[in-house]
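Worked example 2:
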Amino acid sequence: MLNKKNKFLKFQNRNFSINSKKVKKNNIFFAIEGSKQSGNLYSSEALSRGAYKVVTSKNIRNKNYIIVKNVRKFLAEACSVKYKEKPKNIIAVTGTNGKSSVAHFYFQILKNLKINSATIGTLGVFYKNKVKKTNLTTPDIITIHKELNFLKRNKIDNVCLEASSHGLHQNRLDSINFKVGIFTNFTQDHLDYHKNLKNYLKAKLYLFSSLLKKNSFAIIDSDIPEYSIINKICKKRKIKVLSFGSKGNTIKLISHHFLGKQQVIKINFLDKIYNIRINLIGDFQIKNLFAAILASYVSIKNPNKIINTLPKIRSATGRMQCVGYKKQSAVVVDYAHTPDALKKSLQTLSKQFNKKVDVVFGCGGDRDKGKRYKMGKIADQFASKIYLTNDNPRSENPISIVKQIKKGCLRSKVILDRKIAIKSAIQNLNSSSILLIAGKGHENYQIIKNKKKYFSDQKLSKFFLK
C-alpha cells in the first residue's frame, strides 16, 4: 500500500491547474465539477495546451486521464503534499457574519505584540505590512495551499483564514491541519447556493465534523442556538471547546456600556477580572473581539499581553467603520448585507450614539432573493430615513430588486444611482440622526449588467462630507 507521499510522488515536480486556459506544458489539470459547469468540458483544451495528465471523476479509459472518486478532495491531498511546509497555528473562522472582523482583530493583536501573523479572506492576504488581493473569501484549493506555504517561507506561523460556506462545501479547506476552528453566528444568507438553511448550516459545521482533528480547539459563542450542536460534535471528536458569552467557560462578559465611539467592558478571562476600553463601534463587535482573543490565547498563551493590546484594536475596513462626521452626526460604512447583520447594525448604532439612524442600502443581484423583503421590513422597523439604491445588481434588473425590497418598506425613497443616494442621504442628515451606508463595506467596485466599475462607499462619503 502506497503512503500519501508516494501516492502523489509523480505530482511533486509538476504544477497544478484548474483553469484550462492557464495550463502550461506538463501541468496537471484537475477537471473540477463546478456548480455551473464541469471542468471535464475543458479536458481536451487542457491536453492540447500540453497538460501531462487530466484528473477526473468520469470513467474515461485513456492513458492521459487519472480517475478518482472526488477531484476536489484529491487535489487538496495533492496540494498538501506539494506545499507541505505550512504555518504551525492555522485558524479557520466560519459563520454568517463577523469572519473578517475576527481575522483582523487576531492579526492586530499579534502585530501589536510584534509576532508575525497573517490573515486570508475577503479583504485579501495581510502579512507583515503587505496586502495581496484575493477574489474570494476562501480562495481556490491551489491558491490557499500556495499562500500558506508562502507565509511559512516568510517565517509566519500564525494565520487566521476565513472559511466561507462555499469554500467548506467545495472542499477548498480539506487536507489543512487546523489548530483552531471558530464559529461566529448563523443567520440567513447564500440560499441561492445552498437552497435551504439546513444545507447552509451543514456546510459550516463541516469545519468541526470533518476538518478539525483530535485535541484541536473550537471557539464558540455560548449564547448562540448552534452552540449545543457544535459542542456535541466536539465532545464526540475530542476537540477542546473554548467558549465565550454569558455561559462561556473561558471569557464571561460582566458589564458593558457605550462611551461615544468607544465601549467599556469588564470581563472574566480565565478567572481574572479585566476592565478594558475598546475603540470599536457596535456591541456585536465585542463578540468578534472575544473570538480573536481566544484564538490569540491558543497561539501565544499569554492573557495579560493580549489584553494590553485591546485599546489599540481598530475595526476592519468597511466593518462598522466611521468615515466622518457632519457636525455631530456620524457616517458609518458597514458590510451588513444579510437581514440579521442589517438589524444588528441599525440597533447597535441607535444605542451607541443615542440617535435615530438613516440608512442607504440595496441587495445584490443573482443572489438569495428571499432576504430582500426581510431586509426591507428590518429597515422599516429600525431606520428613520430609508434610501433604497443599487448594491451589485449584476445581471438582474435593478428596478426589480428594489421593488422586492420596497414591499417591506413602503415609506423608503428610491434612488438607484448609489452615488446620488449617498450624496442625498448626507445632505439630508441632521443632528438628531446618524447615517449607515450598508451592504458593500470594503468593496471598491460595483457590478451593473455584469460590468465592474470602480466604486467606494468610503471615498464617496468622505468627499460629500467635505
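The chain has 16 helices and 23 strands. The CA atoms of residues 323 and 331 lie 6 Å apart.
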